[in-house]
Amino acid sequence: MFSTFRFVIAILVIALYTLPLMVVQEIALRTPLLSDRIVPRLWHRLTLRMLGVRVRMEGSPAKDRPLMIVANHVSWLDILVLGSLDGVHFIAKSEMRKWPILGTFARQQRSVFVERERRRSSPEQAREIAERLADGDPMVLFAEGTTGDGNRVLPFKSTLFGAAQLALASDRADSVTLQPVALIYVRKGGLRLDRRERAAISWIGDTDLLPNLITLWHSRPIDIAVRYGDPIPFLAKGDRKTVTREAEAQVRAMLTAGLRGTEI
Questions:
Q1: The domain that contains 109 carries what CATH number?
Q2: pLDDT per position as a tens digit, 77-136
Q3: CA distance 70 to 244
Q4: Which helix (H) or strand (E) holds 130?
Q5: Could you tell me if 141 and 69 are in contact, meaning their C-beta atoms sit under 8 angstroms apart?
Q6: Which positions fall inside the Phospholipid/glycerol acyltransferase domain (predicted)?
Q7: Can you give the residue range of the structural domain that contains 208?
Q8: How remote is the C-alpha of 125 from its chain's centroid?
C-alpha cells in the first residue's frame, strides 16, 4: 500500500515538472536563446532519479561528427538512459508519436520517426536521418528494430545504416562515425539480475506501458550500465552490411561481458 502511494506521488511529481520544462523546450526550439539539448537531458535525469534508476557510463562517447550511436534495445527506459548522458537525438518508431509524455518529449527532442514495416518509405527516412547527421546531430539507432529481453542481442538490421552513407553525399564530411553502445541491465534492489528477472523488467512485444512501469517501480533501484565501444569509421565507399555486422559484434561482446559479472 505504501509503495503504491509513493508510486502515485512520483508520477505526480514527474507531471508537475514536465509541463514547465515542455514550455521551456518549445522556446528553445523556436529561438536561439537556449540550446534545445539542455531541457531533454535534464528531464531524463530527473525522471530516472524519480523512478529509482541508476546509470553508470563505461567508456566515453565519440567526439567526432557526424556520429551515429548504434545500441541494443531492452526497454523504453533506454531512451531516458541515453538521453540523460549526452545531447543526442533518437531514431524512433512512428508509434511513439502517440505515447503520453514520452511521445511529446521525443518530438521536442527532434527525434526522427520511422515506419520500419513500410519498406517503400525507407529511402525517404534514410535521407532525413542523413540530413540530421550532416548537420552535426548525434543520432541514436536501436539497430535491432525491436526490444529484446536484455539477455542477448538480436540481429541488427542494416537498412537505416544507409543513412550514414547518404550523409557523406553532402560533402560536409569524409566519413561518418558509428559508435556501438551496449545497454546492460545489471541489478535490481542491489542484487544482480538473473536471466528470468532481466526478461521480466524488459519491454517486449505489445506489453502496455503502465504495467511495465509498475514492474520497474517495484524493482527499484535498477542499475544500468552503458558501455561505449570502439568507434567505427564509415566511409562513402564502405559496405553497409559489413559495418552493421561489426557494430553488432561489438555490442554483443560488450553485453556478454557485462552479464558475466563485470562490475559496474
A1: 3.40.1130
A2: 999 999 999 889 998 887 777 777 778 878 888 998 887 665 555 667 778 888 888 888
A3: 9
A4: helix 122-134
A5: yes
A6: 67-186
A7: 2-259
A8: 18
